[in-house]
Recover the amino acids of this structure.
């Protein structure tokens, strides 16, 4: 990916340099042609039809400054051209990522029906990030029973978040397997798996829009009653006390200042 980006950047600089070179060639050609024609007019003492007098040195400088004024506007296009070329390259990379088919999805030959999540089992899981030398998880065995709350406790960097990321198949374990009701998660549709898991980060992100919009992002078909129930279950009843309730606008440009805990509870309601 880095080599492709480098190649595309060099290519864009070539096009930008070519455009600037052609533009300067045209501008200086205008200067040269203007001086050449002006010397002929003065030498032959031709009459200026606008004034009825012969052309003078002053007329030459008037033409030069007129060309200079016009070409200065053309030079102002150069930064915009550079920005457009770079945006085109970046845009292509973005759409390549969007259109990329997940390699994990390609590995699934037979997608079984999504289980009921009565048990989640980690069997002899070993995992290492590609940027690290040591294993993040080593021979981990874990059984999570349905209808229970499980807390994973450990020091910072011990692999707590990694366990969740493996369950969501953001990464694949180097060794071992993860089972949901004795079904390997690699045999479950990636879309169905992730739609059945609510993941709330420690630092939640609220999307631009209303609180209602944020909650509906988790389930676009949710009814008003379901929205209110999810807020109550997430202990986010403070939303009902806001002036506009669930229609309160949140995001970076919001006029309502929500604490980190309040944002997290809204994110939990969205996950529910």
């Amino acid at each position: 990916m880095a080599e492709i980006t480098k190649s595309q950047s060099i290519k864009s600089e070539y096009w930008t340099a070519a455009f600037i070179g052609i533009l300067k060639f045209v501008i200086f050609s205008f200067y040269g042609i203007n001086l050449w024609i002006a010397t002929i007019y003065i030498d032959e003492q031709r009459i200026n039809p606008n004034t009825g007098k012969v052309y003078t040195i002053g007329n030459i400088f008037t033409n030069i400054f007129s060309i200079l004024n016009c070409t200065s506007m053309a030079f102002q296009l150069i930064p915009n051209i550079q920005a457009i070329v770079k945006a085109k390259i970046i845009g292509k990379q973005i759409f390549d990522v969007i259109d990329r088919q997940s390699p994990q999805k390609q590995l699934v030959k037979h997608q079984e029906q999504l289980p009921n999540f009565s048990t989640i089992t980690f069997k002899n899981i070993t995992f290492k990030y590609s940027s690290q030398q040591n294993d993040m998880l080593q021979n981990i065995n874990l059984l999570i029973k349905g209808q229970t709350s499980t807390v994973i406790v450990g020091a910072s960097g011990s692999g707590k978040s990694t366990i969740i990321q493996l369950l969501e198949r953001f990464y694949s374990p180097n060794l071992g397997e993860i089972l949901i009701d004795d079904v390997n998660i690699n045999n479950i549709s990636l879309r169905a798996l992730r739609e059945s898991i609510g993941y709330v980060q420690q630092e939640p992100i609220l999307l631009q829009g209303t609180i209602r919009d944020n909650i509906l992002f988790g389930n676009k078909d949710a009814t008003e009653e379901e929205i209110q129930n999810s807020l109550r279950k997430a202990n986010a009843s403070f939303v009902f006390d806001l002036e506009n309730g669930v229609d309160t606008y949140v995001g970076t440009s919001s006029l309502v200042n929500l604490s980190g805990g309040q944002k997290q509870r809204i994110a939990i309601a969205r996950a529910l």
Q: What stands out?
A: The radius of gyration is 33 Å.
